[in-house]
From TrEMBL:
GO terms for cellular component: ribosome. It comes from the Bacteria. Binds together with bS18 to 16S ribosomal RNA. InterPro entries: Ribosomal_bS6 (IPR000529), Ribosomal_bS6_sf (IPR035980), Ribosomal_S6_plastid/chlpt (IPR020814), Transl_elong_EF1B/ribsomal_bS6 (IPR014717). Pfam families: Ribosomal_S6 (PF01250). The gene is rpsF. Belongs to the bacterial ribosomal protein bS6 family. Keywords: Ribonucleoprotein, Ribosomal protein, RNA-binding, rRNA-binding. This is Small ribosomal subunit protein bS6. The lineage of its organism: Bacteria, Bacillati, Cyanobacteriota, Cyanophyceae, Oscillatoriophycideae.
Length: 115
């Protein structure tokens, strides 16, 4: 399983109830497909850097979860077809296991010693 972070922006004219329904829709979609450790953070309404679909503001939502790669495509397809979502982005986070962190520290110490 890989760790993913999906950030999406909702239209600013949505009511709180509609925002919560949209968040729940994507949460349940991920859970149904086997995602684990799902955490959602509603970041609130912010000004966009540039206008998207004649919108100057957007409601930002961040989801972090662990899942197989096959989970991402159906969710992004649903977001692309949704009228509530104006932008989305999913990234795969690097695995920072204790073993990987220890090897990275060892490489850093070796680099410092040779410099």
């Amino acid at each position: 399983m890989n760790s993913y972070e999906t950030m999406y922006i909702l239209r600013p004219d949505l009511l709180d109830e509609q925002v919560n329904q949209t968040i729940e829709k994507y949460q349940s979609m991920l859970r149904d497909q086997g995602a684990q450790d799902l955490s959602v953070q509603l970041r609130g309404k912010h000004r966009l850097a540039y206008e998207i679909n004649r919108q100057r503001d957007g409601i930002y939502v961040q989801m972090n979860y662990q899942a197989n790669g096959s989970v991402v495509a159906p969710m992004e397809r649903a977001m692309r077809l949704s009228e509530e979502v104006i932008r989305y982005l999913t990234i795969r986070l690097e695995d920072v296991s204790p073993k990987a962190a220890a090897s990275a520290e060892a490489e850093a110490e070796t680099a410092d010693a040779t410099a």
